[in-house]
Amino acid sequence: ALHLAATGGHVRICRALLAKGADAKMPNLQYHSADNLAIFHKQQAVLRLFKPTLSDKEFTEAACAAMLAA
After folding, report:
1. Which one of 18, 41, 45, 68 is separated from 61 by 20 to 30 angstroms, measured CA to CA?
2. Pick from 3, 69, 8, 58: which is nearest to 35 by CA?
3. In this prediction, what percent of the chain has a pLDDT beyond 90?
4. For residues 47 and 13, is the Cβ–Cβ distance under 8 A?
C-alpha cells in the first residue's frame, strides 16, 4: 500500500501508513522501495516525508538519478 501511495504522491496516506509501522525501505516484489518509487515518479512531497532533510537543490533530475543509482 505504501508503494502505491508513494508512486501516486499521496502524502497523507503515506504519513498514515508510516505511523502504523510501514517501512519506506522495504522492497516490493520488483525490489523497489517506496522511497525509490517516490524518486522515480518525481513525488517531491512524498520524498520529503521519507527524507525530511532533502533540500530543493537535492530534488533535481541529476540528484534523483544519483539517489536511484546509490
Report:
1. 18
2. 3
3. 59
4. no
Q: Which residue's entry shows cell 533530475?
A: 61
Grouping H, G, I as helix, E, B as strand and the rest as coil, residue 26 is: coil
pLDDT averaged over every residue in the chain: 88
Predicted pLDDT at 70: 67
3-class state of residue 46 by DSSP: helix
What distance in Å separates the CA atoms of residue 59 and residue 20, rounded to the nearest whole number?
27
Would you state the cell numbers that stand for residue 34, as one nine-digit string? 517506496
3-class DSSP state of 27: coil
Instruction: Give the C-alpha separation, 52 to 39, whole Å.
Output: 14
pTM score: 0.79
- The angle formed by the CA atoms of residues 8, 40 and 13, to the nearest 5 degrees, is 30
